[in-house]
Write the structure tokens for this entry.
Amino acid sequence: MAKIKVTLAKGLSGRKPNQVKTVKALGLTKRNSSVVVEDTDMIKGMINTISHLVNVEEVSK
């Protein structure tokens, strides 16, 4: 499986509760924090929910 790097670009202040929970479930805590995750359908759905808050990059091996 491919891996992707997800970086939280915007803060969570004033966001809907489901968006905050999705960010926390991905392992992102503060602004500009990053996490490398597997590129699965579940992760893509989570990223789609918070696409306006994060930057996504493909990680090459």
